[in-house]
Specification:
Length: 448
């Protein structure tokens, strides 16, 4: 590829090559001609945080350690989603920033503390019960969010996730990214565009809702591209459009924690408000669910009992032990003792109760911090609370890694063609090669 003075990455989550080829996204199709379109192969598991870390580092989950959206702490018997610190991990924008380039990144996970020159991630001010007291975003530089809020209002968190999720959040993020170009002129700009994810999860890839959402996001991307075309650096710009995964249509929710409870391996306790909370300290096995993937953490003597309890569940295609984790690329200390892979039409829900009257207090609320597993039911309003407990409503899922995302490159500084299929681990080193910086990756590759 030709060297580019500026690289822009648009992570249009849920976009697939067939959507572009079929004309559902005309602005993206105009930017990325057919020889420059590819299927993007994502290493297992194809869920948000592992996929983002792979794209931004050039490493597989077994190397970078993000094997799920959640993280289980064996020492404290605690689980948390979305809360891992950056620690000493460098992603491409941090590497490029340290090399003297100006970098920007918007709404990727684990951005707080990044050294990117301009960065933004939602960070509402909450009380001890995780109740939002005030909307806020963490930004570099500090005053950037106040300036954005003055021009565009507060970040619309209620449209970023939950029953009210829609394109408003994508529009706000792209407006903020456009402001970053005008104010800070980054050499590398990486932008997460979220809202296709909502239609894909709620309604599935075969739905009219997803097709309509593709058209909406394409219009927003088109407006952002028009702003880039009008600035002084367009002639030296290459725009990379990437998507972390595609979706399966699903109709079978699977409940591994119920099976572990029935086998006497998972224990519960009173949550203090009339419901049942999982008692991780007293349990000998627990399943941290994540779309079509589940990590099962078990005491040393309980692994085989957990395997026996889970192997026969309808909707479970694979139960991976040590050799299976090696084969599937998740052999890392953060992974479960067992890893479950769902059948294409199935997905995993965290519930351990049978009667909804026994659900913990947070189950009917939008509380991503309290729930020890990813909950797509948060996309549906409930009859007795904000969030539905009817898992059969969920129409789409992902994680198996067998539905490719999309990758394409366009703009004046892009070459005319790329390989038909691109390994997601090649994205970061290709961008690094353009920008003249080095990244450590865990596979042999040539820049695209």
């Amino acid at each position: 590829m030709t060297d580019a003075g500026r690289a822009v990455v648009l992570d249009v989550i849920g976009l697939e090559r067939e959507h572009v080829d079929a004309g559902l996204a005309p602005n993206i199709a105009e930017l990325v001609p057919e020889p420059a379109r590819a299927d993007l192969g994502m290493p297992f598991p194809a869920v948000t945080l592992p996929a983002q870390s792979t794209l931004a580092t050039g490493q597989s989950p077994a190397a970078h350690g993000d094997v799920a959206n959640g993280e289980y702490d064996r020492e404290t018997d605690s689980v948390a989603l979305w809360e891992r610190d950056r620690e000493n991990r460098n992603r491409l924008w941090e590497t490029a920033s340290e090399a003297g380039l100006t970098t920007g990144v918007f709404c990727f996970q684990h951005l707080i503390g990044t050294s990117a020159d301009v960065a933004l991630t939602p960070s509402p001010i909450e009380d001890e019960e995780n109740t939002i007291l005030e909307m806020n975003c963490w930004t570099n530089p500090d005053e950037f969010y106040d300036e954005l809020e003055a021009d565009y209002g507060h970040f619309p968190l209620h449209t970023y996730w939950g029953p009210g999720a829609n394109e408003t959040s994508s529009e706000w993020i792209l407006n903020a990214a456009r402001e970053s170009v005008e104010r800070y002129d980054p050499d590398l700009l990486w932008v997460y565009v979220p809202h296709l994810d909502y239609a894909g999860l709620a309604h599935g890839p075969s739905s009219d809702e997803l097709a309509e959402a593709i058209g909406v996001v394409d219009e927003l991307v088109g407006e952002f591209l028009d702003s880039l075309r009008g600035d002084d650096r367009w002639d030296e710009t290459a725009v990379h459009v990437a998507s972390e995964y595609g979706f399966h249509d699903v109709d079978t929710p699977v409940y591994p924690n119920r099976a572990l409870r029935e086998a006497g391996l998972l224990q519960v306790r009173d949550d203090g408000e009339g419901g049942e909370e999982v008692d991780l300290e007293s349990s000998t096995a627990f399943a941290m669910v994540d779309h079509q993937v589940t990590h099962v953490y078990a005491d040393e003597g309980a692994v085989e009992a957990a395997r026996e309890a889970l192997s026969g569940l309808e909707g479970v295609e694979h139960v991976l032990g040590e050799s299976g984790k090696e084969e599937w690329g998740v052999a890392h200390p953060n992974a479960g003792d067992l890893v479950l892979v769902a059948e294409p039409s199935a997905w995993f829900q965290y519930y351990w109760w049978r009667d909804d009257a026994d659900a913990p207090f947070y189950a009917r609320d939008m509380d991503i911090h309290a729930k020890p597993g990813f909950d797509p039911c948060e996309l549906f309003f409930g009859d007795e609370g904000l969030v539905s407990l009817d898992a059969t409503k969920v129409g789409g899922s992902h994680g198996r890694g067998d539905v490719d995302g999309f990758y394409g490159v366009g703009g004046p500084a892009a070459d005319a063609s790329i390989p038909d299929t691109v390994d997601a681990r090649a994205v970061a080193p290709t961008l690094a090669d353009r920008l003249g910086v080095d990244v450590d990756t865990d596979f042999e590759h040539d820049p695209l």
